[in-house]
């Protein structure tokens, strides 16, 4: 099998997905500029932010040979595609394939790096799907690894479709059928628990209160973190604008010397992805999710924003992506 990007032979199974670089909940535009971090200082990082880390586990993890909850087997490590010969005993996954905690961790990291939001066995001829709980247990994930895995799964699921999130009960991706109702049914948890299991699309906790609701559930603190980010992010200034002679602003300070003020975080007007600008480049930006070019200041599509650019107010809702 060959790497689809480099053409170099790869020991890993080909899943037919090109790799990509994971990014946090708020997509940071032009993070390579040194002055970038200063724009984030006045307000805390979003709840869904995550530090990407796709490097394989550096230190091998080993199972406790006396753990009665594990089924140990003799033989090959079915996920040791690089023949690293991990010293830990082999244990059976629910699908029957044998793994070590390090080989399983490395394989699952690879799936996340390829944009997957589900963990599928890489064993020969097997396409079984593991729950997040099983991966956490069998890979002996550290708290840091568990957080990274979960946040990356969420982002990958959102990247694939805006109508998919991970169930807080089982970790499986669930599709939201009604965009105006925060109450979502998980069929997997309902079958496993033997009772109706519903969760809140917004706070990702088991549902409380009346239904349907489009603003919040009955859980305390239920709110939309994306809206909070749009509300609390600091302002930024773009310099060097040229304006139409007929344009007059009520706020003279805002436009002195070609300076235009707008929020540092915007929701893409087409798909709703949160984008943060560093002001170190052109206000015209390309959304990495929907590939639509728009002006970060006035939120108009490319071509509509000409010499007279008026800053759009802070957004109070997240645009819904209506795919054609």
Automatic annotation (TrEMBL):
Gene3D superfamilies: 1.20.120.1750. SUPFAM superfamilies: RING/U-box. This is RBR-type E3 ubiquitin transferase. It comes from Astatotilapia calliptera.
